[in-house]
Queue: 4 jobs
Job 1
Amino acid sequence: MTTLAGHCHCGAIRVELDPGRPVDELPLRSCQCGFCRRHGARTMSDPASRLHIEAAPGVLNRYRFGARAVDALLCEECGVYVASVLQTDDGRLLATLNVAGVDLEGFGGRTAEPVSYEHETQDERLERRMARWTPAVLVEALPSA
């Protein structure tokens, strides 16, 4: 399958998604938490896919809210919410990608499924993320051309 590329508004944070299945089969969600609603987030995650996030030095703003278990990645320059990441106990990085924030091709015109996770316990939330989020790599370096 073709690698999909996108970036924040100013281009300081770039992403590449290697989808594990056809893009039209990847789940597209609209989380109903205050943070995601305020950012107009439309997110995807898929454990069979792979995500590479590359940020220019000094532009990555990590924001933690709620249970403070994940980092929401925002661009310091343009303010775009790019992804949320979770570092697992065994050192892996898992992510959910805001396809709207990085204008990722293949998702336009699709309706996102509204979801609410407010009734999950912390253990249930972690279990869901471990099962559904995308394996990721995060590199802080000058973005490649």
Job 2
Amino acid sequence: MKKVLVTGGSGFFGGALKRRLLTEGYDVVNLDLVAEPDPPATNLKSIQGDIRDTALVDTLFATEHFDAVMHCAAMLAHEKIADDDLWTSNVDGTHILAEAARKHSVKPFVFISTNCLWAHNVGRPVREDDIPAPVELYGRSKLAAEEALKPFENDLNIVTIRCPTIIEAGRLGLLAILFEFIDEGHKVWVVGDGGNRYQFIDAQDLATACIASANYTRSDLFHIGAANVPTLREVYQAIIDAAGTKARVAQLPEAPTIAAMKLAHKLGVSPLGPYHYRMIAEDFEFDTTRIRQRLGWSPTVSNQEMMVKAYRYYSTKRKEIESRAGEVSAHSRGAAMGVIRLLKWVS
């Protein structure tokens, strides 16, 4: 594997993967709707374009002679994007890439999927053979993209990696709201007692899995995530301890809080959607047995370590982050706080 197409390489994880590949000596072509944010490099070519543009995609495959595809591009539900745009980008775009890979005999195809395929606690770590049940458009689109890739599994080595929330220095989005509360010494609210366990994945651990998957010799499906998942309260406390502010963890009653979140979503005044209010007080963890056994992968970074790293990035660069607008990906800028600002006022 020498030349890799990374879709979404201007985004948060696509960018982290792109930089990792460049550091390890690969030639990388970044295809993204967003302009390349990183400095020029001799082994990097950046194309600002749409994965739904069949002619563009076919020309890229014909001229660049890729050795592998790492498909990270996705439109997110909390961006101001028409439903049809989200669906066609996440589903049709994925199909177009796979068609081009098959036509041009590029067998390694790594697809980044999501834990948003579920919005309930199944009572144990979720396995690859558990039946998905997404509740939002984004989750449904990622499941449909997985289905769109299945007809290609005999011709390509399709490796789908389902990820929980990906964390690294620079991860913002909804996390920027949490970090702002902590940075300013406000109460950090958990719903219920904060004893629920929610798994994350470190961006570099995921990049390691992507590189290994591109050298895997058949199609497969993997769940990935950090090990020894702590409670949400423990994660928040680790960030507070690292920040050294007067922030502290406080509790909100579960039933009325979730009812209020549902209402706020219906009124369009909250950045939190059905997935968030269903999972905010629930456990969710992937069973990573298969990827450990078949790919020889293992996580190296804990939930606490990656979140502290992300907070320190935010705290150091807060003024610059707050000036960012739509020219960067959604995960690389702070999400609008909306009605959550009321909690800040009373804490």
Job 3
Amino acid sequence: MRLRRELLPADREAIALLLAATGFFNPEESAVALELVDERLSQGPESHYRFLVAEEAGQVLGYACWGPIPGTRFSADLYWIAVNPNAQGHGVGRALLAAIEAWMAEQGRFRVYVETSTRPQYAPTRAFYLACGYQLAAELPDFYAPGDGKAIFLKLLTAPNP
């Protein structure tokens, strides 16, 4: 498996198919994810969004998207991490997350925030973040919809020097 920090035009379709294959993302969520892809492809390095793509034999296995939080000194948002169901359980998600965290730290971003749904469907996602050293920082009931709250996770990568 190879991890690359470059987002290629061909990745757009692969990411759209990957998002659909997971069965987790509704059409609105997938559209938002693809808007971030489109922005990065059109703006290149000037885009706020950074992408890491996991691939093997020319096939996209998964991807992650992150960005520094504007107005903060050390914080970053992990916007998306998704792995093709056929590649899940083989360390792709952990490899993406570890590489993203290293990239964030290189950029001086030591506080990583992740938001996800509190719906039962997302229990494995929440368990993944907890297993990777994140802590539940906040929960906002009914944020997305009635019965669908937002869970906000935080991980401190290192203590920044003042």
Job 4
Amino acid sequence: MVNDVEKRWNDPPTLRRAARYVLAVIVLTGIAMAVALVWAAARPQCLDAENMRCDTVSRLVVGLGPGLMLLFGGIGAFVITYRQWRDGKPWPIWQGAGWFLFTLMVVYLSLAGASG
């Protein structure tokens, strides 16, 4: 088991894997956000409205869909953190990836909620 006092912060292969994971989650979240916005704009209830998020369902889908993807991405990073820690491998990089995704989730949800 790894001594928690002696954290290994410098592990390039783990950093690359964590960065690819975070980028994949962000790209998939962006795609989900684009799909949700197109869907919300094409709804018959919103065709004549000025705002593409004209009703509660549109606001929920555009706000919560990508937010949930970031949440699950962060949880996935923390699961990988636990597995890395359990196996005695460098884990702090994955913990940072999880907190970064959680921070993005909070920022996205606050912006999506405020623009309603």
